[in-house]
Oxidoreductase (Kumtagia ephedrae), 256 residues
Amino acid sequence: MSEDKKNRIVIITGAGIGIGHATAKAFGALGDHVVVTDILEKEGRETAQAIAAAGGSAEFRRYDVRSREAADALVADVEARHGRIDVIVANAGIAHRTPLAELTDEKWDLTFDIDLKGIFRLVRAAAPGMRARRSGSVVALSSIMGVAYGWDEHVHYSAAKSGVVGLVRALAVELARDGVRVNGVAPGYIRTAQLLSEENSLGPVAAEKAAEFIPMGRLGTPEDIADVIAFLASKEARYMTGQVLVVDGGLLVGRY
Ligand SMILES: NC(=O)c1ccc[n+]([C@@H]2O[C@H](COP(=O)([O-])OP(=O)(O)OC[C@H]3O[C@@H](n4cnc5c(N)ncnc54)[C@H](O)[C@@H]3O)[C@@H](O)[C@H]2O)c1
């Protein structure tokens, strides 16, 4: 079955909360089967239950994007039970505030392992099946901190999210002739646990202040991002590949 049909098989990483959670619900509402994955088991199960309660189809699989073995096993298991994987939303990510003077190799590696290599591992595992079926769509999460802004005390995060842009482009070109599309989304300031973390991001007060500088006058919602991810995975985006769409309420093109 191709990506334009209903009842696609969709794997979403980091889908227990935030943007991943909203994206899982969006695909569930479209009639797709959603494989909700996360290291947060309770939240992941609740996401799958919420989709089912709304009349959709979903399952939860515990999956840590840092493991190659887990990526290979997840893909093998989903393909064995469902016959295919139509869509991957590589959403799992961390943003840990760390001043340069404290940015150890270990902290750098952890962010890269999750935010960049985590995407690569899952796509590498799923690509052979997608290529064989000549159908598939991947959507990866970058950030405005990767495509335009530099983020102080988040050098590792900005670097990893810039890396997502290169990853998307190269995968898109390598997989295009086999019918597999790869795109990305670069969110602006989205109201999630990540953004509202005082320790690692803006925190609630600075987030509200940032909203004043956003031309559309508000922070984004997880659903604002989920709908664009769903578009990129849909047949309406069939001639798009290798692109990273900025979804930020006009922040980057605004003047302040
Ligand atoms: N919120 C924003 O303003 C914003 C802006 C730009 C980009 N993003 C990106 O969007 C994505 C989602 O962000 P969010 O705001 O919903 O974050 P969030 O912190 O609310 O959720 C992140 C999810 O990733 C999961 N995760 C973390 N490490 C994992 C691992 N090793 N394996 C599997 N899952 C793991 C978490 O458990 C959680 O479910 C991230 O990649 C983030 O960097 C967010």
Confidence is low (pLDDT under 50) at residues 1-5. Strands lie at 9-12, 33-38, 57-62, 87-90, 136-141, 180-187, 244-247. Residues 66 and 110 are 9 Å apart (CA to CA). The chain has one domain: 9-245.
